[in-house]
UniProtKB/TrEMBL annotation:
The name this protein goes by in its record: Uncharacterized protein
UniProt lineage: Bacteria, Bacillati, Bacillota, Bacilli, Bacillales
Organism listed in the record: Fictibacillus macauensis ZFHKF-1
Top-level division of the source organism's lineage: Bacteria
Compositionally biased residues, Pro residues: 288-298
Region (Disordered): 248-311
């Protein structure tokens, strides 16, 4: 009778334990699903932001391309104008030489004209052509004298005409070349101003392009982080289910062993009692049997304990710190300068992820279901990993080697405990020192 009561109580205990674990299981998965939905919404918003920034960046790149084309064209025009100016200056040099030759001709003509004027002056101010003609000795001499006078007059006219044309040509050529040089110089100045303006626009657009590219890269990193978070959440869901089943099997096995032990102890007591000699008539069995020992109560959530994941000293505690500006440190850093320092699982559980993160470096996430509560432990910056996703690990089992990968400045283990699922905001992070034994 006692044996049956004890067995019944143990069965009820196992059933109640299984029942009480179900709400925690549902709550944990519900939290993960909510985080996944939130993360998807954030990713959608980030992608829309990325598309907008990409559109802006492409527009700026098109403008920059147009400016660069104008800048190149202006530069070519400047080179062309400089060549024209150089050619014009060479023309000026050549023109100066020609002017010197013309000036010499002019000087010679001026000398001849002066001589003619002096001759006219010495002859009374005018040439007495009639006396010259009348003084001829014969008709032939008369014709020669008339022809000579006409030749002299024509020569004087031609001399004056050439003198005038040469002077006008020199002035006209000089003015034309000077105007051409002035025009080219003005155009060159305008082109230089345009080049400076285009250079300023190019630099401004280049800065804007660099800013948009940086913004694009930042959003891309955010998207990668969200994608990584999404993958972690998906892996957490699978690991949480596997871990709860593992914990239930382990608890059921432990309770089965305790029930068998209780049965053996009850049987031993029964045998011992039966083997004693009857000194007196057995007393009538009381109406109510002695109560069976109550099963051991399950420890509360707060009594969940974890073992130290690595040996060393704490180089950075949990909480707010100002290492490089205000920052929340969601775990503790355990430093050890030794070689091949092992990193062990702080609690039995199921490996959520084992991968190389850009920030965490070589890291391992483990889900542990303890006393009806899901916990997530994180081991980061390791030099090597010894477990894979989905693997079941025991407390104290080696899962990697301490290192300095990812965003790390020295060999250490970054260790986190989350009461519940891990999330990007680290809102479930708790101080590991409150749980390590």
């Amino acid at each position: 009778m006692k044996y049956k009561v004890l067995t019944g109580l143990l069965s009820v205990s196992v059933g109640m334990t299984t029942f009480t674990q179900m709400p925690a299981n549902a709550q944990s998965l519900s939290d993960i699903h909510k985080k996944q939905a939130d993360n998807k919404a954030k990713q959608h918003k980030k992608k829309a932001q990325m598309d907008h920034v990409k559109g802006e960046h492409n527009a700026v790149l098109q403008e920059l391309k147009s400016i660069e084309a104008k800048y190149k064209q202006t530069k070519n025009e400047i080179t062309s104008k400089k060549t024209e100016i150089s050619t014009t200056k060479q023309k000026i040099v050549q023109l100066k030489k020609e002017i010197m030759v013309i000036n010499k001709r002019i000087q010679k003509r001026e000398a001849l004209l002066k001589e003619r004027l002096r001759s006219i002056y010495e002859n009374g101010g005018t040439v007495k052509y009639l006396e010259v003609v009348l003084g001829s000795q014969s008709f032939g001499d008369f014709l020669d004298r008339v022809f000579s006078i006409n030749t002299i007059a024509d020569s004087d006219k031609q001399l004056l005409k050439e003198q005038k044309e040469d002077k006008e040509a020199v002035e006209q050529d000089k003015k034309h070349v000077e105007n051409q040089l002035a025009s080219l110089t003005t155009k060159l100045g305008e082109l230089n101003d345009l080049q400076d303006k285009l250079k300023g626009q190019k630099e401004a657009k280049s800065r804007l392009s660099a800013s948009l590219k940086s913004k694009e890269e930042h959003i891309h990193k955010d998207l990668l982080s969200m994608k990584e978070q999404d993958e972690i959440l998906a892996d957490q869901e699978k690991a949480a289910k596997a871990e709860i089943l593992r914990a239930k099997r382990e608890a059921a096995e432990q309770q089965r062993k305790e029930a068998e032990q209780a049965k053996r102890e009850a049987a031993d007591r029964h045998k011992e009692k039966a083997s004693k000699p009857a000194l007196q008539a057995p007393a009538e069995e009381p109406s109510s049997p002695n109560p069976a020992p109550a099963p051991k109560p399950a420890p509360s959530h707060g009594s969940a304990s974890f073992s130290w994941p690595a040996s060393g000293s704490i180089s950075s505690p949990f909480g707010n710190r100002s290492f490089q500006g205000p920052e929340f440190h969601p775990g503790i850093d355990i430093a050890n300068a030794g070689s091949n320092v092992p990193v062990s699982a702080a609690a039995s559980g199921t490996v959520i992820r084992s991968y190389l993160s850009s920030s965490y470096g070589n890291c391992v996430f483990i889900a542990s279901y303890k006393n009806g509560q899901m916990y997530t432990t994180v081991y980061a910056h390791m030099s090597a990993r010894a477990v894979s996703a989905g693997q079941t690990v025991s407390q104290g089992q080696r899962i990697g080697t301490m290192g300095s990968t990812g965003n790390s400045t020295g060999q250490h283990l970054h260790f986190e405990i989350h009461k519940g699922e891990w999330n990007y905001a680290k809102s479930n992070a708790v101080n590991p020192l409150s749980y390590l034994q």
